[in-house]
Amino acid sequence: MIKEKExxxxxxxxxxxxxKEKNNMLFRSLWDNTLPTYQKMIDTNIEKHINSKKDGYSRxxxxxxxxxxxxxxxxxxxxxWERKDLKDIGYGVNWMKLKYKIENPESFTKxxxxxxxxxxxxxxxxxxxxxxxxxxxxxxxxEHTSEAEAKKEVREGKATDSIYNNPIExxxxxxxxxxxxxxxxxxxxxxxxxxxxxxASAIAYSKMAFIISCLGEFIRxxxxxxxxxxxxxxxxxxxxxxxxxxxLGRNGLLLTPxxxxxxxxxxxxxxxxxxxxxxxxxxxxxIKNYCKNCFKxxxxxxxNAITKDKNPTFIAPTISNNRGVKKYYVDVEKCFExxxxxxxxxxxxxxxxxxxxxxxxLSPLEFWNKT
Length: 371
Hints:
Elements lengths: L24 H7 L14 H7 L6 H10 L1 H5 L30 H14 L4 E6 L8 E2 L8 H4 L1 H4 L10 E2 L8 E8 L2 H4 L5 H27 L4 E4 L6 H7 L4 E2 L5 E2 L7 E8 L10 H13 L2 H5 L31 H11 L5 H4 L12 H6 L2
Antiparallel strand pairs: 1-4, 2-3, 4-8, 5-8, 6-7
């Protein structure tokens, strides 16, 4: 476990509690009737947008977004905690039954990172599991069920409260996490907040599902355990910071040296004997000083959800934020209001961040016409 003094963030333990996933805005909007977005999701205004003929909101654009989610939503083994059964797909199975002997953990850590990047990860780091970042309770997907099937009743607003309140505990011995970043397409993100930007997010999620599925099976083929996760099970950003991938920005997102916030995060928890990376303290300090004086993301926010306060705080604006960590908090209730209006996520705060390193900003029409 990570010792408190080694953490690259300040935590007020009198305030901090493990997060309840039901308070995530995508869940909360389905059960919290005090919200203006209650029972509203991104499909609420799609037909209105398509009929508007507005650039970036055509049927073509929405088709691109919806198709981008295909693997993430429909592949039933993307978020498996274990292998259902050992099937022979033409390579035999007997050689998989004994545990692979890892003689040099440092060398093998390089091997696992190579495999992660081979399967499509843009960035990869290793961290010790810090139970602070594991959800206290949350939605537990039925075993080997696709996202679309598992969340059908949830998305229809028919789920009982108990479905959000399953205790989340990792199995004994699962003490390492492989954290991966997947780059989002630069040209598409540059069109934010229009639908090509949302498509960049969607395809990154499907790539995540593919990557963790392959990496999880690679680990199981060696006789070890793998728990494949997207946004579920644990808070991805602090795990990514622990794994040395970057720092937390004013916009509430992971900023990486390579792509800024233009990444999506996935992870695989495991009992492999891996060597953990150190947080990138130099970059963390750089972002801390930069974000204190840069307000581009806050100025670009459609609903003023990103704070313009000079200094970070321990106090969160909503129950959908996890208070007790000193940072810049985003009012995610306001943020989600624009998601509903926009019929997708936004991306403005990603687009304008100087660390995204976007060289050319395109209109949706220019995005489609660029060869």
